[in-house]
TrEMBL record:
Task of the protein: Modifies, by uridylylation and deuridylylation, the PII regulatory proteins (GlnB and homologs), in response to the nitrogen status of the cell that GlnD senses through the glutamine level. Under low glutamine levels, catalyzes the conversion of the PII proteins and UTP to PII-UMP and PPi, while under higher glutamine levels, GlnD hydrolyzes PII-UMP to PII and UMP (deuridylylation). Thus, controls uridylylation state and activity of the PII proteins, and plays an important role in the regulation of nitrogen metabolism.
A Pfam family recorded for this sequence: NTP_transf_2
Coiled coil: none
Record family assignment: Belongs to the GlnD family.
Lineage: Bacteria, Pseudomonadati, Pseudomonadota, Gammaproteobacteria, Kangiellales
Database matches in NCBIfam families: UTase_glnD
Name listed for the protein in its UniProt record: Bifunctional uridylyltransferase/uridylyl-removing enzyme
Amino acid sequence: MASPDKFNYLPKAADLLKKSQSAEGIERLKVYKGYLQAGLDALTKQFQKGTSIIQLLRARSALMDHILITSWSQFSVNSNAALIAVGGYGREELQPYSDIDILVLLSESDDAKGRQPELEAWLAFLWDIGLEVGHSVRTIEHCEELALEDISVATNLIESRYLCGDRLLLKELDERIKKPEFWPSESFFKAKLNEQITRHVKFKETSFNLEPNIKSNPGGLRDLQVIQWITLKHFKSSSLHDLIKYGIFTRREYRSLLNGQQFLHRVRFALHVLSNKREDRLLFEHQKKVAEWMGFEDHDNKLAVEHLMQRYYRAVMIIRNLNELFLQIFEQEYLQLGQNANFIDLDEDFYLHNQRIGIKDPDLFLHKPHALIKIFRHIALNPEIIQIEAKTMRKIRSSQQMVNKSYRRDPINISYFKEFLATKQMTSRGFTLMKRTNILGAMIPKFAQIEGQMQFDLFHAYTVDEHTLFLLRYIIRYNKPEFQHEFPLCRKIMKTLVDPTPLYLAAIFHDIGKGRGGDHSELGAVDALEYCKSIGLENHISELVAWLVKNHLIMSLVAQRKDISDPDVIERFASRVPSILHLELLYVLTVSDIRATNPTLWNSWKESLLKELFLATKHYLTQSTPRANQSEMLEDTRQQVIEQFTKSGESVEPVRELLVELGNDYLLRYHPEQIIWQTEQLLSQPELPYVAIKNHRSQAGTEVFIAIEDQPDLFASITALLSQNHLNIQAATLFTSPKGLCLDTFIVLDEQGYPLSYEQRIQEIQDNLIDGLSNMKGLDLSISRAIPSKLKYFTVKTRIEIFNDPNKAFTTLEITALDRPALLANIGQAFRDCDIEVHSAKIVTLGERVEDTFTISDGNNQPITDETKIQQIKQHLEQAINA
């Protein structure tokens, strides 16, 4: 227990004692609150001066010691008990707003109930002055019983620190918990390891979330504390420096661990002070402020926040690697677990033992430098290999400096790396461990530049390098028979692919140009081509890789932003694809890229669009005759509809009459299957407005079909109603017949990104739409959906483009803007104000940004060409979007 006077910048201990003794009630509260705030202010000032964070955490603990001890005495809580600091407070790592974890330790004969009022009054006082206290009141016997049942209680007790009261009570408790039978080292180790595994799974095994939890994420402070706890339990040492003496860490590894710990402590300190509460999540709303507070600045085409986060990710990677190294060495050398497992020879250089690959010769990498690559091919091909043995891992890291320019040019090393890339890998651990040992970055130096590179937006959930690993994981997953049901088309392509090298390299290079300014696809394509040539790949392979990198976004953009039912769109896209192989690899790359970008980004609607675009383009590329002209397409669609009704035995004359009445534009606008379904609805002569809801033909979205007489404000009203029913619009096709009948179709998903599945919910939406559209004049277009808090911390420059294609009947409008609930409904109201007819809409949401494309015309169904009118539209749209 240290006095706050040990730290000359803290308020004097005597000040609190003197002022509080003569104060009562509210006045005493004010004294303690003032002392607490003065202490925090002093610590904050020292933080900004660069004072050691370890010292500041101890100073905060000393300040808290004095507050608790002084108030304990003044409230006469219990002279026969002991007040004990536990947890982070016990090890003197107290952050500004951390919980104050304490144990009130009683003797077996103590009358706890007799002292209950004083204790409750004291605890209430601590809460009143602004402390979040986690407390327990137990006897020594009770502590021991609970600790034997619960590893978290046991962990708290081994970190206990005396504050005041009967010191002999803590001495007796210490004697009990230090007995060999109290959580033996092996049991303690296994329990903490299981806790860590469970925690890592909760965070999807990644250290690279863009809004990480500094304490609990893999590689966070909790991973470091696991090392501390096991060291304290087994070696009876609270100093990580002693791990050098025990041969677990080298001096360099210890310094790396200490630097990582201190950096994370500083980030957490800043986060607590800036958020004015206990906050361990480095959310977007805090990142810019923390970066500024810690002195990071914008430069080198990177924002200050990106520099902060890159430093953070590199720190947690070091801590995670050293955590795994510690656990493995401790398990093997101190607990000697798994020693009876068989050693399996993999070849003359490597063996498999206890699911870990190891080297037979400690100097293997000196004698055979190519073995630095060969080991990862073994890992990639053998799913039984889960880890690299600790000593081998250390040898790889110490040999990393060998991988220089001459190493990369050596024909033998190149041949082994090419062999690794050409392998149809059965597990992504080869790439993952190659990256975590820094060998991937050493072999491809451009990749090392994006390690820890974040992007400050809601679209990307991971750093660039971690996203790349997820992308490779998804590609490799298609090789596994047990996952063939997930994406059968990707699985089929991978099964027939002889050499996966172009796909793996395209995955590695597709985002490698980020963080440098300019178009990352263009930059990456140049890097990819240069690298492929440097390792001697054939020209057609090198050019294929560069083409995939350069065009890795195009398929997603066309599928989501263009009308892929339009043959012209397919023709233009196909003209950019040199061959079926290019198309197939681009499809696999695109699907995997979207899935790896953000867990919430992928949905069945995107899957449907990409598959439809792939199949239509493949058909176009393989056909031997030119595509059908418009008149042939019209006749083909009409014939498909007629044949369907003929099969059902119904009279086809009403169908022919209805199709004539609706006109050719209708047949061109919709898919034959949609026309058949809509025709069935219309032939029943429903009362208007009419609403029908069913799953889209792809089963990837829900199709909302609305038949209603044409009238002003229709698009604005429908979009508002759909938004009020908590539906997200993915696409819209709008048609008005010559007689003024509107047949509009909206593809929607629920707020979780899924098609509607519950009949009761579907009926409720159907009723709400009919009620709203039946009373258009009294319809309330306001939307009450709250703006997600995350969106408040991003800015997206609104961009509105309006242009005409002489080959198209209507005008195209493209909008890029910051996303928010009811945005589409507001845009619809701007259309109403400008007397604009909307014929189709493509809705694309990319994190905080939307990129929507509309086909529009004036009130007479003519393209909008007047420049004054165009400027008026842009002005109204900007006002609606930025309102």
